[in-house]
């Protein structure tokens, strides 16, 4: 699988990244079918397959249940082989999400993630937006804290996982990258991709398959063909699905 540079960061990401929501959470998710959380042996084999297929990018977050802690165990001794994308802002407790966008919480959340993941840095660290993108990104203190994390070497690149075109563009103007939804049935955030292509910033695409609801034959190829896209994050715990994703990229 080809590697693509994330904007001006110097990071090289696989065209497909593995999302790990299903590694640790099966409540309050939008997939069309329910599922049981896989055991650690299954996940260890899945990560080995991902690596064999050329995938080097993993996406996680505190809101993904046990994902961070399980990855910390699974990736022991392999840290340098992976690009890890983390987030802060959303917490998932007792079946519900809540959001905290203070610099103090982000400091706490990042250090908690580092401890859970068993690492002293994250490659990419994103603000996990609740949809009020511009309100969050106009908080100078929060952006200063994100820049501070980078200056201290706790993260290598910063950005935001946004939900609006305006928010995604603002994130690119302030930071290194943005994560936005984009698929054949949802193109409202395409202006963010075009802005990234023009400014040399990085784009991670989420919901390429609309959480399993997109019916287009090849949504991955659709997303990856856009010149602004660095990597498409696809969540799966199925080895067959993972192989098909790579074949279709």
Protein model, in words:
The structure is a single chain. This protein is an alpha/beta fold and 249 residues long. It has one domain (3-248): TIM Barrel (Alpha-Beta Barrel), CATH 3.20.20.100. The protein has 10 helices and 12 strands. It has helices at 21-24, 40-52, 67-74, 103-117, 133-137, 140-151, 165-174, 190-199, 219-224, 239-248, and strands at 3-5, 12-14, 16-19, 57-59, 83-88, 90-93, 96-99, 122-128, 155-161, 177-181, 202-206, 231-235. The protein has an 8-stranded parallel beta barrel with strand order 3-4-5-8-9-10-11-12, surrounded by 5 helices. α3 (67-74) packs parallel to α4 and α7 packs parallel to α8. The longest helix has 15 residues, at 103-117. The protein starts with a strand and ends with a helix.
User: What is the CATH topology?
Assistant: TIM Barrel
Rg (C-alpha, Å):
16 Å
**Spatial strand arrangement across the major sheet:** 3-4-5-8-9-10-11-12
Query: Number of helical runs?
Result: 10
CATH class: Alpha Beta
What about the largest sheet? 8 strands, parallel, barrel
